[in-house]
Recover the amino acids of this structure.
């Protein structure tokens, strides 16, 4: 927090109870044994007959970026909505910065920032007007709201577009404005619900950069995503979610180890020599191969993709096997899920699946 | 803080907040957003105002010549207070559409995730829409004066007339907020846009109930819009088109009670619908 003390925006007010409580939580945060910024246990929420959250547990340590990874319908958005007081929980306890979400929603809202799935900024207004509005609604006086808005526009590379209507913004710019609007009060935790869904690669890159800067500034972040590489790029820890609960948790490296490493896909030019090629690739990598006859593709799961790729190329070349395409890729989310829920065939009981796998 | 260069702005300390939450201030700020819309995208507003003026011209001159007011009196003088009341009813669509759009676009969720009072969003809508209606009423009145409408009473009566018109608009705010939150689909908005027409026409806005078939006249007389229109006519000193019956004696009372009843029903329903967003 050193930077903030010297920042011109860190205006101090005497006898301000709001500030005092925030400072207390700050002290906790920088203490030797920091308590988690977010703790959720046994969260349940149903919509009609759909159990959107079904015993959801999550702990997010202060100052970390936590990724919540899962497919559509896993319950990520419901989890975020419940944790940010937008949706009422059926059961369970959740605290943010030590405050009970269900009992003290107002106090919780003072300490959170939320970037939801929609671009929740006003299209007709300019970037500056949006930020000033949200800053004033967050309790800043007009001059301070203007000052804070300018600073945030600058920080998120939106200063040049400050006077333009948001309706003309690219997806990435809108997202960044959305993130800026959520940081007016410097929250204890920033929630980002699928921040890059629907963005082009360039927009995604700028949003990733924004998230990294938020994290570098010491703000705790909970980020939901459908993309493994996004979680991998941004998160310190990842919770994999399915059917309303967390089915696996760990650092990206831990999860990858559990999921298995990289994949190499080799598409053969000659479909007639698939079996032979599979044997060659298997021998070169010492790993089991799978063959897709329709695409003439041999897939092999390896720990170190770079090294494996070289040996595969050498082996195929030695056997005079011609390839149309050779690709190194990360496991897809589908593969992650299939892996995490295997060997149980019934995907409704992922817990059992994980336990049996861990017992191995 | 393991990473390099923490951005000083993003890291800015808490303690910036220097205002306690206050529903009135927040409502005002949220309403200010609508006022900015008018400035930035004025065509919606201008078209809305022009539409009401067009209705006056159409009914005043196109149909007006063929319409006789029971009890005597000039049709333009009869029509204008009715049009004022109709404009209040038409405001309902605006309230509903704005509420539904904000909820759909996630703006309402953004507001709900802020540390503001739970009444601020509705209050903001109410302030903005009332401001819109005051402006609409002013434009209609100026337009009316230009085509020969004249209030003939004193300032106190005129003020009370205007107040009763806005009282009707105020009550319809809660109906609009309720409908906007409860039925968010595009179909619902269209349904209301269509339904305000028969509701508006099944009143004494354009013609006196006494010229209608008996049963239809009864319905038209009991329409809240008719109560307000008749009260406004009375208070502005314009022909009322009502020569007998309960409404002839008690128009101001009816124009006070109807909106009160609507408010008493739909204000709690609107509040419940807002709370239900948490489900």
């Amino acid at each position: 927090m050193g930077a903030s003390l010297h920042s011109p925006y860190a205006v101090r007010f005497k006898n301000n109870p709001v500030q005092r409580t925030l400072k207390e939580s700050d002290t906790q945060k920088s203490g030797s044994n920091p308590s988690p910024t977010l703790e959720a246990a046994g969260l349940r929420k149903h919509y009609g007959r759909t159990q959107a959250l079904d015993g959801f547990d999550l702990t997010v340590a202060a100052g970390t970026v936590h990724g919540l990874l899962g497919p559509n319908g896993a319950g990520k958005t419901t989890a975020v909505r419940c944790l940010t007081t937008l949706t009422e929980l059926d059961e369970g306890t959740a605290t943010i910065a030590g405050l009970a979400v269900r009992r003290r929603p107002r106090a919780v809202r003072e300490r959170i920032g939320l970037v939801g799935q929609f671009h929740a900024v006003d299209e007709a207004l300019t970037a500056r007007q949006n930020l000033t509005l949200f800053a004033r609604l967050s309790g800043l006086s007009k001059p301070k709201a203007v000052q804070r808005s300018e600073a945030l526009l600058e920080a998120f590379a939106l200063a040049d577009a400050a006077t333009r209507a948001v309706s003309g913004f690219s997806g990435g710019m809108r997202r960044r404005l959305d993130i800026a609007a959520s940081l007016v009060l410097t929250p204890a935790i920033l929630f980002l619900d699928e921040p890059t869904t629907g963005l082009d690669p360039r927009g995604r890159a700028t949003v990733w950069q924004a998230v990294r800067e938020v994290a570098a500034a010491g703000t705790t972040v909970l980020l939901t995503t459908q993309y493994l590489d996004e979680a991998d790029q941004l998160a310190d820890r990842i919770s994999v979610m399915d059917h309303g609960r967390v089915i696996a948790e760990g650092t990206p490296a831990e999860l990858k180890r559990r999921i298995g490493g990289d994949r190499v896909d080799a598409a053969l030019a000659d479909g007639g020599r698939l079996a032979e090629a599979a044997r060659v690739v298997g021998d070169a990598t010492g790993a089991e191969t799978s063959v897709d006859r329709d695409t003439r593709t041999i897939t092999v799961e390896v720990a170190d993709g770079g090294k494996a790729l070289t040996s595969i190329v050498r082996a195929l070349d030695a056997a005079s096997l011609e390839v149309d395409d050779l690709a190194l890729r990360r496991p897809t989310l589908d593969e992650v899920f299939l892996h995490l829920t295997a060997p149980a065939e019934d995907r409704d009981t992922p817990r059992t699946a994980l336990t049996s796998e861990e017992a191995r | 803080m393991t990473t390099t260069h923490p951005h000083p702005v993003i890291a800015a300390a808490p303690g910036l907040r220097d205002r306690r939450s206050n529903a009135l201030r927040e409502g005002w700020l949220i309403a200010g957003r609508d006022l900015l819309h008018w400035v930035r995208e004025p065509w919606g507003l201008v078209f809305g105002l022009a539409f009401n003026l067009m209705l006056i011209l159409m009914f005043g001159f196109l149909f007006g010549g063929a319409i006789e007011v029971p009890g005597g009196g000039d049709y333009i003088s009869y029509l204008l207070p009715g049009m004022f009341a109709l404009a209040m009813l038409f405001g309902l669509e605006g309230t509903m559409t704005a509420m539904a759009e904000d909820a759909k676009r996630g703006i309402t969720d953004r507001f709900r995730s802020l540390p503001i009072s739970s009444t601020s969003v509705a209050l903001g809508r109410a302030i903005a829409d009332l401001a819109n209606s005051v402006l609409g009423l002013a434009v209609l009145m100026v337009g009316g004066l230009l085509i020969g409408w004249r209030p003939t009473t004193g300032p106190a009566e005129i003020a009370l007339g205007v107040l009763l018109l806005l009282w009707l608009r105020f009550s319809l705010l809660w109906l609009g907020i309720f409908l906007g939150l409860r039925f968010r689909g595009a179909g619902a908005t269209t349904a209301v846009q269509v339904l305000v027409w028969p509701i508006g026409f099944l009143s004494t806005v354009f013609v006196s109930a006494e010229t209608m078939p008996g049963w239809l006249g009864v319905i038209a007389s009991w329409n809240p819009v008719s109560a307000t229109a008749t009260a406004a006519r009375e208070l502005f000193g314009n022909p009322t088109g009502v020569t007998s019956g309960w409404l002839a004696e008690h128009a101001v009372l009816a124009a006070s009670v109807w909106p009160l009843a609507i408010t008493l029903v739909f204000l709690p329903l609107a509040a419940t619908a807002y709370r239900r967003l948490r489900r």
Remarks:
- The mean pLDDT of chain A is 83.
- The first strand of chain A starts at residue 38 and ends at 47.
- Chain A touches chain B through 70 residues (CB under 8 Å).
- Chain A has two domains: 33-256, 261-330.
